[in-house]
From TrEMBL:
Keywords: Kinase, Phosphoprotein, Transferase. One of its GO terms (molecular function) is kinase activity. The lineage of its organism: Bacteria, Pseudomonadati, Verrucomicrobiota, Opitutia, Puniceicoccales. PROSITE patterns: HIS_KIN, RESPONSE_REGULATORY. This is histidine kinase. Residues 8-124 form the Response regulatory domain. Its EC number is 2.7.13.3. The keyword Transmembrane helix does not apply. The modification 4-aspartylphosphate is found at D57. It comes from the Bacteria. Residues 155-370 form the Histidine kinase domain. Pfam families: HATPase_c, Response_reg. It comes from Coraliomargarita algicola.
């Protein structure tokens, strides 16, 4: 059986009799007790022993308890060690001074040993809960990473297998019908499309791995929005009309990566275009892009809203929209656009979220630091 480590308590007081009384009481309860007689000794002992809790007298020569506590709390290596002040000041102001310095509790002189022991045990229990909470957070983070890796891996396998099936199927057609030039040409075109999608999946994964190292430059926000819309029309080859409603000043600039910005906005625009039923004419596929400056929370942000009046968010994916390979489209090789977009935007300290409109359709809101 593994023996649980005894708690380490540091008692700091310039009166040896106080230290002796506390040391005897705590050691009888199975605690390891270390002692220091002034603030400087306290700092040195803490560095050597890493105690679980400190009992610290306020009134000491040279460096008093308040200054000692402030130094401990300003050091990342010692800031989480709970400190209980021992004070002769019974006034409310004296106690508040100690708590403001970072102490978790206080004991007034003359010292009541039983009360002191109870307060020490309480803080040790809280400290243990704090450590367990940190461990749970680490495990939760690891579990989330594992789940994300699993989801991406499963999605990659599913999509690539489907696309490889397309390629193999059309290869068989070509082998069996090589004397039909039209059929060969049609099959090669579909194979080329499937291979392009496979390449895009691999490129998207590379984006996730590398987007933390983006180079940012100062760009005109209005010019960047217009170039993004133009790139969207050209890249996706859709006769889309995007209505831009901008309240930006002509000299509004942002620090951005043009390539990444255009790709993200393009993904939001193509999602808006594809939200309409397939037989909807181009002129009826309304897409509105609003640009403004958001100053409501924290630093000012560029705020872009892409609004459509399509079929809205399917209930089957409403809670999982930003997970890898979540899609309502029937074609294969899709489903990581929103995952990558949100991941990239958050690395740039922006945000992306989708909300259904009361009158139908969806509004995607994309914020980017200025």
């Amino acid at each position: 059986m593994i023996r649980k480590q005894q708690p380490k308590i540091l008692v700091v007081d310039d009166q040896p009799i106080n230290i002796k009384l506390l040391q005897r009481k705590l050691e009888r309860q199975g605690m390891d007790v270390y002692v220091a007689y002034n603030g400087r000794e306290c700092l040195s002992t803490v560095a050597e022993t890493k105690p679980d809790l400190i009992l610290l007298d306020i009134m000491m020569p040279e460096m008093d308890g308040i200054e000692t506590c402030q130094r401990l709390k300003s050091n990342p290596l010692t800031e989480t060690i709970p400190i209980i002040f021992i004070t002769a000041k019974a006034s409310k102001e004296g106690k508040l001074e100690g708590l403001d310095a970072g102490a978790v509790d206080y004991i007034t002189k003359p010292i009541d040993l039983d009360e002191t022991l109870a307060r020490v045990r309480t803080q040790l229990r809280l400290q243990e809960m704090f450590r367990e909470n940190l461990q749970l957070q680490v495990r939760l983070g690891d579990a989330r990473k594992a789940a994300a890796v699993g989801a991406i891996t499963q999605g990659i396998a599913h999509n690539l297998n489907n696309l490889l099936g397309v390629v193999v199927g059309y290869l068989d057609l070509i082998k069996n019908g090589h004397d039909s030039p039209d059929m060969v040409k049609h099959s090669v075109g579909l194979m080329d499309n499937a291979i392009t999608r496979m390449v895009n999946i691999i490129r998207q994964l590379g984006t996730i791995a590398n987007n933390e190292r983006l180079e940012l430059t100062t760009l005109s926000a209005s010019d960047l929005i217009e170039s993004s819309v133009e790139r969207y029309r050209t890249e996706y080859e859709v006769p889309s009309q995007v209505t831009i409603e901008s309240s930006l000043d002509s000299d509004t600039n942002i620090s951005a990566n043009a390539e990444t910005f255009e790709i993200i906005l393009g993904k939001l625009l193509i999602n808006a275009w594809e939200s309409y039923p397939k037989n909807t004419p181009a002129e009826e596929r309304s897409i509105i892009l609003k640009a403004s400056i958001d100053r409501e929370r924290g630093p000012a942000m560029l705020k872009l809203q892409v609004t459509d009046h399509g079929t809205g968010i399917s209930p089957e994916v409403s809670d999982t929209l930003f997970e890898p390979f979540i899609t309502t489209k029937t074609s294969v090789g899709r489903g990581m656009g929103l995952t990558i977009a949100r991941h990239t935007i958050r690395n740039l300290e922006g945000e992306l979220h989708l909300k259904e409109n009361p009158e139908g359709g969806v509004t995607a809101t994309f914020t980017h630091p200025l």
